[in-house]
Amino acid sequence: MKRSKTKKRFKGVRYSFRPKSYWEESDPLSAILRNITGENRRQMITDFWNAGRLEDLDPTLLKDELDPDTSASLGRIHPSFMGGEFLPGFLSGEVEIARICLRSTTSDVITLRARPAPSGIAYRIADEYDGQFTLPITFSERPLTLLEVIRQFDDGSLDEVDCSQGLAHAYNLLNGAGLGPAEASKYLRGFTSIQSRIYRQLNNHFDHVYDEWFKNPPWKNDDEQDGEDDSES
Predict the structure, then answer these.
(1) Where are the alpha helices (DSSP H) in 162-217?
(2) Which of 66, 88, 153, 157 could form a disulfide with 70 if both were Cys (CB 3.0 to 4.6 A apart)?
(3) pTM, rounded to two decimals
(4) Angle between helices 181-188 and 218-232 (to 10 degrees)
(5) In terms of Cα–Cα distance, which of 163, 182, 183 is closest to 173?
(6) Average pLDDT by consecutive 10-residue portion of the chain (233 residues)?
């Protein structure tokens, strides 16, 4: 069995947490947001909910998935409104359990989903570009623990993308190509976030991971190696 990259543990994070079900919501807002694909819409709905003004929001924006014309209209307001709106449709009974959010121009989203399967739960991950992903855990008899969800991102991979440090770091590596360590830390810290309304401490864990990672990013090692090579020539 391939060794997992999941090694980090941080104080205060309950890695053994396991939800009773993926199909029972802990609060009304989570029930509304569960399968809403658009990242900006999710934030908008949350803001209106917190302000007690959800009834003022256009009902169209409360749909799980928007039709292409509505998605295009939102994109004309700002490209970031397209983020998540072009994810693949949900399979029967499928729900989102976590997502990677990128601070790109179009606020791209990568979704981790669970669906009922014979004798258990099946998992898949998808993006908005028909990417081909591989997950370390594709089936379980009961919902995953927080640690197991973290492993999905640490050991998951996307074809034709450098996932040597896991899917959690793949998008930083991809967008950090050509940047020096100072530039990478400045522009890419906060570029990738991993979130879940089921696993509330998932973002907390990866926030710590990214803090540590950017203190010693791979670009720094490359630059140091280049300097050593220059000094030897």
Answers:
(1) 167-176, 181-188, 202-215
(2) 66
(3) 0.88
(4) 170
(5) 163
(6) 76 97 90 93 95 94 91 89 93 97 95 97 97 97 98 95 91 82 80 95 96 78 47 42
